[in-house]
Amino acid sequence: MLTWIIETVRASLRLVALLLIVTIECVVIVLVRLLAGNQGAAMARVWFNQLILFVLGFKHNKHGQWVKGEPAMILFNHPSYIDIFLISSPWPTAVMAAIEFKYFPFIGQVAMALKTIWIDRKNPGNVRESATSRYKDGCGIFMCPEGRTSGSHSLHPIFPGMFKTAMAHQIPIVFYNLRYSSEDIPYFHDLKKGFIPHLLAHIWIILKRKRSEITTHIGKPHMVTNVTESMQAYYDYHEQYLKDCPGFEIVPPTTD
After folding, report:
1. Is the pLDDT of residue 254 over 70?
2. Strands (E), the chain
3. Residues 4-13: contacts with CB within 8 Å, 24+ apart?
4. N or C end of the chain, less CB within 10 A?
């Protein structure tokens, strides 16, 4: 009974703090972008992400450094929605995200202020062109080539489109690995019926945890000279950090 009370109080306080911080962030990010441009907004986003991870009880073990002043296409594995608080860099970046989140309370407002590239899976349109345009404007691109959260530390089939874009427009790519200390943190939902209550139940589990850890590894920038080889390199990079996770599975890359 005592444990339940402690966990419930902890989760409740964290939830209130999280909602307050994200509400403030929605306003601050917009104002900073107007007053200090995209660079200022990027640095504000980094600071807010660190604060949110702290409030959620996460210890962030970071390995590697971003190359400052050199925007790139950052390709990350995507085990959980918590990942959104880990995808920020010291230079302006745009995130590629499902259009279902565009009008999601709080998160959607911040994302729109940060020039997020919205992906409609039913009508992808000119997503690759949008990414290229953002890069030419001096923004990096955060995207998951699997096109979805995995709900585990396993890797799903990846799509070749952005690898082709990186090669065609000479955009350097950086592999970015995320690994959580517990297998109950990764999350997946098809975004259809029942998504919101299911997501909230999952978040409540995370909020009740006394302490969690996330370990990230940042690779070095490199150019794509062969799409198939780069796709395999993506798998190889992430496998070295995830292969000992319970139930880890890797699926060969698509060749289309």
Report:
1. no
2. 58-63, 73-76, 93-98, 117-119, 140-143, 173-180, 212-218
3. 7/208, 8/208, 10/207, 10/208, 10/210, 11/204, 11/207, 11/208
4. N
Task: State pTM to two decimals.
Answer: 0.90
Alpha-helical segments (H) within 74-183:
107-113, 127-136, 161-168
Residue 180, number of CB atoms within 10 A of its CB = 20
Total domains, the chain: 1
At a CB cut-off of 8 Å and minimum separation 6, what does 183 contact? Answer: 152, 153, 245, 246, 247
Q: Tokens for 113, please give them.
A: 């202020």
Asked if residue 254 is part of any domain, the answer here is no
Query: Which residue reads 């959260």 in tokens?
Result: 149
Mean pLDDT, range 14-38, rounded to an integer: 90
H or E element in which residue 44 lies: helix 2-55
* Banded pLDDT at 212 (limits 50, 70, 90): very high
For residue range 215-248, list pLDDT tens digits in order: 999 999 999 999 999 999 999 999 999 999 998 9
Domain that holds residue 236: 2-242
Residues 46, 62, 37, CA angle at the centre, nearest 5°?
20
Name the strands in the sheet holding 93-98, side by side, starting at the edge strand that comes first in the sequence. Answer: 58-63, 212-218, 173-180, 73-76, 140-143, 93-98, 117-119
| Residue 194, domain member (yes or no) | yes
Between CA 238 and CA 241 the distance in angstroms is 6
Q: Which residues contact 43 (CB under 8 A, 6 or more apart)?
A: 90
Q: Which two tokens stand for residue 17?
A: 């703090």
